[in-house]
Amino acid sequence: MVEPKYPGVVEQYINLGKCYDHNGMEGLRTAIISCMRGYKGHYQRAYRCLDAAAELMYDVRSTLDSDALEEKLSKRARGILDRELKPRKGAPAGTVKQRFLGAVTHRGQMCLWGTVECQCQRIYELSDRYGLAHRMLAHLLSGALKAGYDVVACPSPMAPDRLEHLLIPQLSLAFLSSSPAHPYPGKAYRRLLLDNAVSADLLRRSRPRLRFSQKITSALMDEAVDSLSQAKAMHDDLEALYHPYVNFELVDETALAIAAELSLL
Predict the structure, then answer these.
(1) Structure confidence by residue, pLDDT tens digits, 105-141
(2) 206 within some domain
């Protein structure tokens, strides 16, 4: 439901509640309330698990963060820019579109790898066990825009303020983050091991903490997916309860009436 900001002058209410057979549904009151509370409860649990997993991921990144790491990733990005993204003479700065390529769903973590492969034949796979790809991708994004290329920036569904993938269709070029939990299934043009940019000594000292964080993160993600699956099942049950008592002809008539009004604008 979307609440109009300026009802009557800019937006208007559309009441699809008139399409219900309220008398027929009266006997379903208890079942509907139970299903509604149940599926919302599962969603809330899923998001609590995802929030906790995101905090642990942040902790892992913070553990490995250093000026030396930033310099190594920046240097690697500059090398790629020099090799792959030559400035377009006379071209204006590029534009950026933001699109989510992946999500956490009731079927698990998903990424539309096929969407990338339809647009980009050369794929850099960024092997990224610890969530370090954002820094390199940020440098690549900035360099690509300055060089005059349009870019599709794909945020992480777990941390929308961080980049997870970068597509440059003009060059048929993409940079994709890949992890053991969610590996890129295709054949990469080049594969970069970002974990190697971390100080070996820091990695060795932090390994017990990293293993703990990754184990708990994995368990939290599994629990979130399970909760989303249960929420989906209960939502399906809810739709099954409502479906026989919805006048879909009236729904269609309402849609056609709105379309006719829009055609006159």
Answers:
(1) 999 999 999 999 999 999 999 999 999 999 999 999 9
(2) no
